Amino acid sequence: MSGPRCPQCAQPWVSPRLLPCLHSLCEPCLRRLGPPEGPPGAARPVLCPVCDAEVSLPAGGVGQLPPDCLAGSRAGAAAGCDLCADGAAAGRCLTCGVRLCRFCCRAHRRQKKTASHAVTELENNKDCSQAGKPLLCPSHPTEELRLFCEQCDQPVCRDCVLGKHRQHPCDFTGNVIHRHGDALRELLKSSQQHMDTLEDVLSQVDEMGSAVRSRAEAVAAEICQFARGYVKAIEEHRDRLLKQLEDLKVQKENLLHLQKAQLQQLLLDLRTGVEFTEHLLMSGSDVEILVTKGVVSSRLAKLNSIAYSTHPSVDDRIQFSPHERAGQCCGYEVFGAILKVVDPARCTLHGEGLHSARQNQLSGFTLLCKDTTGERMGRGGEAVQVTFTHKDKRDCALKPTVCDNGDGTYCISYSPEEPGLYAVCVCVKGQHVQGSPFTLMVKHKFREHQGVFHCCTFCSSGGQKAARCACGGTMPGGYQGCGHGHRGHPGCHHWSCCGQVKESSECLCVPPSDTSQRSLLRTVAL
């Protein structure tokens, strides 16, 4: 007689057990599944032969997996008669607890020993499932599972309540099934919504794949039409372009196929969980629902928590430019290329105006744009944004000028009005280029020195440290003689009060005895 069978051994069920992925296998098949048993008390990972999902067998072994009480009915087979094993169960003897076909029901009522037994009719699958033999406690094989321990979240028998569950809150399964069944229904509703969303996304992925292929075919037609005007060189160039296009199409399709496979697997897992849960809630008895509630809830919650994109992972943007210079092919300059995409992370900055400048003086630097392979773009038109922000004066606005040279380079010029430290950001398509952001130091502008040299003023005063320059500044530093017959010369930092001359290793002043030269220095200005 044909009936429900194990998907692993294709034999009739022998003590089917439910895996965390909601697939069932015979207990002997489970014991042969995967690597040898690990150390005692440790969970053992195995691959489900139905869905290839990695699941963990309990530390206590296969026997700790919940029994799959609905394995037979889920396969579409009706419960059989326990007496003749030939017909489908149509009733149940409430006294004996056995399932009976219609013939055995009549015979059961006619026999002397069983004539007084009460036989009830089975109306549907759920009644048939409930009519099965009661589920017995694995710890107390003679006791039926009639109670539910809320603390341990599992069905228990009367002896369990009197034993290790004595202090735990327990209630009859009929009293708690509504609350736990409602929780499963909420998870089921959420899973069904995810299924609808996944089906919509898969439809979009298929449409996008069609659009990518359609666009690729259109670009291929453009490339072929453009290449017909040339002889051998253009034909080779055309083949090269088609190869690039094919690679791009394959790259996009591979990404879409990968996304589709991931979405399909998630949808398949959700559909399996939903179908199992629907069948459990529709056909399972109270105890059967409570027995499998934990693993079902865990599986559905895990599937519902998996993140996935609700849009295709790539778009159909593939552009061909027939006027783009493509270099040399067989000694001929050829045109036409699949447009490069600028990579801001590979774009570089060059020039003297990157890190220092002078107040009110025009300065600048150059931006060189490159594609994802590091090659120069060779064309302009990119969205370049440049900002200058004063570190101390936030309201100080500096507006640079960006000039597109049309060859992949951009000249950025600026004229700072305020000295100080600036933070400079250079972005292409909203992303920073190499080296951005960076700091720019703007120094004070050069001023024409008014009056005599400071050191000459200092020397003429007889070496007084408090001598003042014609610009109003005083000589910094300590007394350091320079050997020219005056004392207190501050290390020959000439004009340092005006910021006009750097340190010199040679003394720029003249001895006090040389009156003519001293007079000449008094009249010299920058």
UniProtKB/TrEMBL annotation:
<feature type="domain" description="RING-type">
    <location>
        <begin position="6"/>
        <end position="52"/>
    </location>
</feature>
<feature type="repeat" description="Filamin">
    <location>
        <begin position="339"/>
        <end position="442"/>
    </location>
</feature>
<keyword id="KW-0862">Zinc</keyword>
<comment type="similarity">
    <text>Belongs to the TRIM/RBCC family.</text>
</comment>
<dbReference type="GO" id="GO:0008270">
    <property type="term" value="F:zinc ion binding"/>
</dbReference>
<dbReference type="InterPro" id="IPR001298">
    <property type="entry name" value="Filamin/ABP280_rpt"/>
</dbReference>
<dbReference type="InterPro" id="IPR017907">
    <property type="entry name" value="Znf_RING_CS"/>
</dbReference>
<dbReference type="InterPro" id="IPR047153">
    <property type="entry name" value="TRIM45/56/19-like"/>
</dbReference>
<dbReference type="InterPro" id="IPR014756">
    <property type="entry name" value="Ig_E-set"/>
</dbReference>
<dbReference type="GO" id="GO:0061630">
    <property type="term" value="F:ubiquitin protein ligase activity"/>
</dbReference>
<dbReference type="Pfam" id="PF00630">
    <property type="entry name" value="Filamin"/>
</dbReference>
<dbReference type="InterPro" id="IPR000315">
    <property type="entry name" value="Znf_B-box"/>
</dbReference>
<keyword id="KW-0175">Coiled coil</keyword>
<dbReference type="InterPro" id="IPR013783">
    <property type="entry name" value="Ig-like_fold"/>
</dbReference>
<dbReference type="Pfam" id="PF00097">
    <property type="entry name" value="zf-C3HC4"/>
</dbReference>
<protein>
    <recommendedName>
        <fullName>RING-type E3 ubiquitin transferase</fullName>
        <ecNumber>2.3.2.27</ecNumber>
    </recommendedName>
</protein>
<dbReference type="InterPro" id="IPR001841">
    <property type="entry name" value="Znf_RING"/>
</dbReference>
<feature type="domain" description="B box-type">
    <location>
        <begin position="132"/>
        <end position="168"/>
    </location>
</feature>
<dbReference type="InterPro" id="IPR017868">
    <property type="entry name" value="Filamin/ABP280_repeat-like"/>
</dbReference>
<keyword id="KW-0677">Repeat</keyword>
<keyword id="KW-0863">Zinc-finger</keyword>
<feature type="coiled-coil region">
    <location>
        <begin position="231"/>
        <end position="262"/>
    </location>
</feature>
<dbReference type="GO" id="GO:0005654">
    <property type="term" value="C:nucleoplasm"/>
</dbReference>
<keyword id="KW-0479">Metal-binding</keyword>
<dbReference type="InterPro" id="IPR013083">
    <property type="entry name" value="Znf_RING/FYVE/PHD"/>
</dbReference>
<dbReference type="InterPro" id="IPR018957">
    <property type="entry name" value="Znf_C3HC4_RING-type"/>
</dbReference>
<dbReference type="Pfam" id="PF00643">
    <property type="entry name" value="zf-B_box"/>
</dbReference>
